[in-house]
Amino acid sequence: MRIILVHGAWGQAAGWGIVPAMLSAAGHDVEAVDLPGHGADPTPPGEVTLSHYAEALAARLRPGPPAALVGHSMGGMAISAAAERAPEKVSHLIYVAAFLPRDGESLLSLKRQEPETIGPAVRPGAQKGTTMLDPEIARDILFQDLAPARQAAALALLGPQANAAQTEPVRLSDGRFGRILRDYILCRADRTVTPELQRMMSEQSRCRRVLELDSGHFPQLSVPDQLVAQILDCLA
Question: For residue 102, how many other CB atoms are within 10 A of its CB?
């Protein structure tokens, strides 16, 4: 099966760690992508919107066979918007500690429904319209279940994040996004997207299954074998 892994805010493809290799070893065609303005993508971050994320993913989807989209954190917004644009190219949506919106919601509107989490670590970015994370504050919010050396490696992969991608509402319809199978992988020790918000979103959007992991916000780094097993379980 074709699988596309989509990272979260301030992230990049490399933040999936060994998960792509593990899914490939299980016989799948796997790609971890850099969203516009992230990682190796050259788009200036200050110009990026959620629509840019959606169209970039839809453009990757269109030439090949239908794919399962796996979104982590903010990547849930991106895969939802992409599925609305190219539903015939999406076989499955899997949300990993991710924002799962309904029509008209934005990441920020969902974030306002939970207590403050990552907010104290957010700083204005060097480019207008972006933010960065203070690594010393973000360390134990994002990566509390990693050893210090692995925390430092994970923090080094974080970059600027476009504000507009987090404030733009998503447009979703029952006839397009709504027809695609959805599963949710909930992280019970998450300090960034609270387990309570994760459960609420998965229930409101009628996910087929909600699986759970005893991990923080980045199970791809802390418990990759367990995460891969649950992704494969969703796809079986």
Answer: 15
Give the Cα separation of 129 and 133 in Å (integer): 14
Structural contact between residues 41 and 34, judged by C-beta atoms closer than 8 angstroms: yes
CA pair distance 106, 126, nearest whole angstrom? 24
> Contact 62/89 with Cβ under 8 angstroms?
yes
Interstrand relation of 67-72 and 90-96 (parallel, antiparallel or unpaired)? parallel
- Is 201:110 a contact under the CB 8 Å cutoff? yes
CA distance 194 to 81: 22
Helix (H, G, I), strand (E, B) or coil at 5: strand
Q: Tell me the mean pLDDT in the region 228-236.
A: 97
Paired residues of 228 in beta bridges: none
45-84 per-position pLDDT tens digit: 999 999 999 999 999 999 999 999 999 999 999 999 999 9
Strand pairing class (161-162; 90-96): unpaired
Rounded distance between C-alpha atoms, residue 161 and residue 49, angstroms: 10
**Spatial distance between the Cα atoms of 218 and 233, rounded to a whole number of angstroms:** 19
What digits encode the pLDDT tens for the residues 142-164?
Answer: 999 999 999 999 999 999 999 99
Decide: pTM greater than 0.85: yes
